[in-house]
Amino acid sequence: MRYFFIIALAAVLITSGCQEKKPLPIIGNIETTATGDTIYPVIRDFSFINQDSQVVTNKDLLGKVTIADFFFTSCPSICPIVKKQELRLYDRFDNYPDLMLVSFTIDPKRDTPERLHLYAQNLEVDPKRWVFLTGPKDELHAISKDYVSIVLEDPDAPGGFDHSGRLILVDKNAHVRSFCNGTDPKEVDRFMEDVQWLLDNGGE
Amino acid sequence: MAVNKYAYRFFFLFFLVVAWHCGVPQEGKSLYTENCVNCHMADGSGLPGIIPAINASLVIKGPYQELACLLYNGRQPADTIKSFVAMPSFKTLTETQITNLINYVKKEWTEDPQFVSEQEVAAAVKACQ
Prior knowledge:
The complex is a heterodimer of chains A (204) and B (129).
Chain A: H1 2-18, E1 31-32, E2 38-39, E3 47-49, E4 55-57, H2 58-61, E5 65-71, H3 79-92, E6 99-105, H4 113-123, E7 130-133, H5 137-146, E8 151-153, E9 161-163, E10 166-170, E11 176-181, H6 185-200
Parallel strand pairs in A: 5-6, 6-7
Antiparallel strand pairs in A: 1-2, 3-4, 5-10, 8-9, 10-11
Chain B: H1 2-35, H2 37-40, H3 58-61, H4 64-73, H5 95-109, H6 118-127
Helix pairs in contact in B: 1-5, 4-6, 5-6
């Protein structure tokens, strides 16, 4: 009888270990039209400037899996710790040319393309794999909502902005599929598995 | 009775040693977590190219006076184009807290930490104001 329990327990452990990861949901408000069609939320159209002063639009990112975040280079609060976690993602997925990291500045007044170029250069990251985008402040702040993030200008906050340190996973069709608190390495570990799942499933 | 007297002395000394080893670095560690971790990281490695690593920093290894002044006054980058984040001033911390913070970082990242007293830090802070 005792052996039966041990074998049963081992069987449960083995099968639970083999369980496939559940598909990632599409995050956001899913709407149904009068005709019964389902509309999944997508990242709105945008056109910003990268660290090499080139225009980057949402169309350039279609067909790629992206990991996005909102930050500013002179941020004295959570940004460096989030960037450190993004470097982990950058290193782990260096064999996936279809994956891009996209960092939107929320402080375009200070974060000019030149300054973003220097920042990326100091981090020693490849501009083909990690873009830093700047543009009109209102548009940058507005698009953060599509990326389920919060950005607020607040003179009392460190550096002048309040913002969430989220990392957001977006699929090839511009749907948000996962996010995590980028300041917490354990959450980022879990997020990495979501990124891996999406890449293993063709980015959709 | 004589034994008891010695026993009391022993326990008092034991308590002092425990308080030093547990209390002080503990407060230093929580101060570090609250004020420094976001930029310099829990392991002191910083963010290469952006935020200096302090686990191998000469400032940490150097004289405590310099470290006390850096914490008290902060530091604006010499080149605001090439540097991104200024070292903030921690004037809001008390001299006791600055002392505990200095002792914590020295304990963590120097090979032969020389602990400083609150009086020494107070004098150093006064000198750099």
